[in-house]
């Protein structure tokens, strides 16, 4: 008898450091666990608005904890993240909308670049503390991920299209329908059931649910 198919959806936004950790762990384990991993780029700001959630850094004590927590997780997961109190304060605006629309355009037309481009956005924002929304910044990320200038420019022109905006909005709505209130949001489809997990620290529980 064939083993039950293990399909995972990872909803993420590159403005979330915890989504970066979850992204890297699932990328590493997708072949070990033989899972069908689908990346679902969404907009964290839309999820927060739809659910009434607030950025964790808005609570001072939690912000203090996050500085230590992110540093520890970065070391544990071997992710080159650098964070400061000033950087956390900058997370209160819609910093990733341009980036997530560009990633959505890639998801729609050039999905083979989805993993490297997403990773380069995280590196630029969380390791180098540089902008990820302006056209020049987006093109720099694309070049770093190995896209040709012609392809990157074509994708950049798609960012303002209704098709890309609607796709990002629909994916964000999907995340909320699954029960997401933050990121990363992971949905496992296994044995005819759906299992929603929040956060990068639930990977062990996810593995247990899918028999790994």
UniProtKB/TrEMBL annotation:
One of its GO terms (molecular function) is glutathione transferase activity. Residues 8-208 form the DSBA-like thioredoxin domain. The active site is at residue 16. Its EC number is 2.5.1.18. One of its GO terms (cellular component) is peroxisome. It catalyses: RX + glutathione = an S-substituted glutathione + a halide anion + H(+). One of its GO terms (biological process) is glutathione metabolic process. Pfam families: DSBA (PF01323). InterPro entries: DSBA-like_thioredoxin_dom (IPR001853), GST_Kappa/NadH (IPR051924), GSTK (IPR044088), HCCAis_GSTk (IPR014440), Thioredoxin-like_sf (IPR036249). Transmembrane segments: none annotated. Keywords: Transferase. Belongs to the GST superfamily. Kappa family. This is Glutathione S-transferase kappa 1. It comes from Eudromia elegans (Elegant crested-tinamou). The gene is Gstk1.
């Amino acid at each position: 008898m064939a083993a039950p198919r293990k399909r995972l959806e990872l909803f993420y936004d590159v403005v979330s450091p915890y989504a970066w950790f979850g992204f890297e762990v699932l990328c590493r384990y997708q072949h070990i666990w033989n899972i069908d991993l689908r990346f679902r780029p969404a907009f964290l700001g839309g999820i927060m608005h739809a659910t009434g959630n607030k950025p964790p850094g808005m609570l001072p004590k939690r912000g203090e904890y996050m500085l230590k927590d992110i540093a520890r997780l970065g070391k544990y997961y071997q992710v080159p993240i650098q964070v400061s109190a000033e950087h956390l304060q900058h997370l209160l605006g819609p910093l990733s909308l341009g980036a997530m629309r560009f990633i959505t355009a890639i998801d729609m037309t050039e999905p083979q670049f989805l993993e490297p481009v997403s990773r380069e956005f995280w590196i630029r924002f969380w390791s180098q503390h540089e902008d990820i929304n302006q056209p020049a910044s987006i093109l720099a990320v694309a070049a770093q991920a190995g896209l040709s200038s012609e392809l990157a420019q074509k994708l950049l022109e798609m960012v303002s299209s209704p098709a890309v905006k609607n796709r990002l909005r629909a994916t964000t709505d999907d995340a909320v329908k699954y029960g997401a209130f933050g990121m990363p949001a992971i949905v496992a489809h296994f044995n005819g059931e759906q299992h929603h997990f929040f956060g990068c620290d639930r990977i062990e529980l996810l593995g247990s649910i899918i028999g790994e």
